[in-house]
């Protein structure tokens, strides 16, 4: 089968399954967050935690709950890593060093799952499920809760600007959506040969005749939520390229579907909750155009390379699993960088300059194609408000979106939310490159001025883009174990996650306190092909103006060499 045909078949399967699940899953999630009834297990949890599920929160209270819960998660995960050596299921592993423990705790709580360590030799089989996997669930549920709070801002009219109850949204997202979906996906992965074991490893004889220790872990259960929650942290160092995590082409397609499922169907949830499903389809169309365009560029770049690692057909196979090939690799790479997942089934550092630049641009667009669980939806909604503002200037009317006026306060909050990520990426990259002798960056295998350092710059840019967008994937040629990278990337993860959340929740509260206005003859329509083009252009224009100089110094320059 030709690469083009194989790619087309896999893309068709993924799109067909998503199309079938789009309506039922999207409407189910809308019912979950709009329901007035609590499950029995939820009621028990509320009583134990002394939570009144019928109390509504303003954006201040909602944001305070998000921050308090997340910071408690950082502290718990940090302590768990530091003392794991004296806990059960640790084998001969000791406690994690302070710098790595801090970086990892922040990484998993912010849904980034950046890993500067080898999981097999660092994290125990207790730390993995009790610490890391639990954060995979709740960090994803936090993102979904914030997205739903913003939707309520468009739907509700309340004098106090109440946008829901964070604790209820967190509980329902975890128990009613993520947990049952993950259970089904884990069973499918088990059927494909993904391992599930609490043993630390087993001995085998390698091809050279020497004894080899193979690491084991409860992989299937964690692999499911790793992809479904757009987390991405590997249970094993090779991540989804490891045959224990992703053994077959079928498991590969299942994992890609898990990555895309909730971000895509949340657009249906949005349309259902606001009472206009065309609005959700418009957002989905923008996501689809961006995702499809970058997939086409990456597939063309990786299929047309020639060199020592190329096949007879010209496809670059360096850094790729032969059981997946070019089509599955590019489909996975574009999906994972477009959804803030960070899981990989290949070495992104081995992608061609154009292919690596495309997946880097996928993150620099703001992780909205289709974005992370919850984060993608509220990210593209913020950009939609900016697009409406631009359109309002063109037609000479006060901009409105879903019956809510976009005044100075709303546009300021939207702009601040959009500007956080570029500031973190560009400042972090600039400091690292300028202070290379103290930050630990030494170009690509030497001094930054040596030939090949263009790729070294791309590696640093990719690292800060990944951390600031809470993605977690990396160009693996860059060593990030120094104190500078551990702390700088950790701070980028924190600010890149929680500053936009604060601005988005403040925006939701401001919108909820407004009365709805009837659309007039001059109101810009926000559903249909015209707004799809306007929003797509806004996304591309913002990214192009912000990051073109940096991209020109890295991937573009490397591709032109």
TrEMBL record:
It comes from the Bacteria. The gene is kdpA. It holds the Pfam family KdpA. This is Potassium-transporting ATPase potassium-binding subunit. The chain crosses the membrane at residues 59-80, 130-155, 175-195, 283-301, 377-399, 411-435, 488-512, 533-557. Keywords: Cell membrane, Ion transport, Membrane, Potassium, Potassium transport, Transmembrane, Transmembrane helix, Transport. The system is composed of three essential subunits: KdpA, KdpB and KdpC. It is a multi-pass membrane protein. Belongs to the KdpA family. One of its GO terms (molecular function) is P-type potassium transmembrane transporter activity. Part of the high-affinity ATP-driven potassium transport (or Kdp) system, which catalyzes the hydrolysis of ATP coupled with the electrogenic transport of potassium into the cytoplasm. This subunit binds the extracellular potassium ions and delivers the ions to the membrane domain of KdpB through an intramembrane tunnel. PANTHER family: POTASSIUM-TRANSPORTING ATPASE A CHAIN, POTASSIUM-TRANSPORTING ATPASE POTASSIUM-BINDING SUBUNIT.
């Amino acid at each position: 089968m030709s690469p083009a045909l194989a790619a087309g078949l896999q893309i068709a399967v993924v799109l067909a399954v998503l199309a079938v699940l789009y309506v039922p899953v999207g409407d189910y999630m809308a019912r979950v967050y709009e329901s007035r009834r609590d499950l029995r297990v939820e009621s028990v949890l509320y009583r134990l935690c002394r939570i009144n599920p019928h109390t509504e929160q303003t954006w201040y209270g909602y944001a305070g709950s998000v921050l308090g819960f997340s910071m408690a998660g950082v502290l718990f995960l940090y302590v768990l890593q530091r003392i794991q050596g004296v806990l059960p299921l640790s084998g001969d592993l000791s406690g994690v060093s302070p710098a790595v423990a801090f970086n990892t705790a922040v990484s998993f709580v912010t849904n980034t799952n950046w890993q500067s360590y080898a999981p097999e030799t660092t994290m125990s089989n207790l730390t993995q499920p009790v610490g890391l996997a639990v954060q995979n669930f709740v960090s994803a549920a936090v993102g979904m809760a914030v997205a739903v709070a913003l939707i309520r801002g468009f739907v509700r009219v309340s004098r106090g600007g109440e946008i829901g109850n964070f604790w209820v949204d967190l509980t329902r997202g975890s128990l009613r959506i993520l947990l049952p979906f993950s259970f089904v996906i884990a069973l499918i992965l088990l059927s494909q040969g993904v391992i599930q074991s609490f043993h630390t490893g087993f001995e085998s004889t390698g091809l050279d005749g020497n004894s080899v220790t193979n690491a084991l872990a409860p992989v299937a259960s964690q692999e499911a939520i790793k992809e479904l929650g757009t987390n991405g942290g590997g249970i094993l160092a090779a991540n989804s390229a490891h045959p224990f995590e992703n053994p077959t082409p079928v498991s590969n397609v299942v994992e890609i579907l898990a990555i895309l499922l909730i971000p895509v169907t949340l657009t249906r949830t949005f349309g259902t909750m606001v009472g206009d499903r065309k609005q959700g389809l418009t957002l989905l169309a923008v996501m689809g155009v961006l995702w499809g365009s970058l997939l086409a560029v990456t597939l063309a770049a990786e299929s047309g390379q020639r060199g020592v690692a190329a096949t007879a057909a010209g496809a670059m196979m360096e850094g790729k699993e032969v059981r997946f090939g070019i089509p599955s690799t590019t489909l996975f790479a574009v999906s994972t960088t477009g959804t803030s997942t960070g899981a990989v089934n290949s070495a992104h550092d081995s992608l061609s300059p154009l292919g690596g630049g495309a997946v880097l641009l996928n993150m620099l667009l703001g992780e909205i194609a289709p974005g992370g669980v919850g984060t993608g939806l509220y990210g593209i909604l913020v950009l939609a408000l900016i697009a409406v503002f631009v359109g309002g200037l063109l037609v000479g009317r006060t901009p409105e979106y879903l019956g809510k006026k976009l005044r100075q306060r709303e546009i300021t909050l939207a702009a601040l939310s959009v500007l956080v990520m570029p500031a973190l990426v560009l400042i972090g990259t600039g400091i690292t490159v300028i202070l290379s002798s103290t930050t630990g960056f030494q170009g690509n295998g030497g001094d930054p001025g040596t030939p090949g350092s263009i790729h070294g710059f791309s590696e640093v840019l990719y690292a800060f883009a990944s951390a600031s967008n809470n993605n977690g994937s990396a160009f693996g040629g860059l060593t990030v174990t120094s104190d500078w990278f551990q702390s700088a990337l950790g701070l980028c993860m924190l600010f890149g996650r929680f500053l936009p959340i604060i601005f988005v929740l403040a925006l939701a509260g401001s919108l909820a306190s407004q009365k709805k206005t009837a659309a007039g003859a001059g109101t810009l329509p926000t559903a249909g092909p015209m707004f799809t083009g306007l929003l797509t252009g806004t996304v591309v224009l913002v990214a192009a103006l912000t990051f073109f100089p940096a991209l020109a110094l890295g991937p573009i320059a490397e591709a032109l060499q």
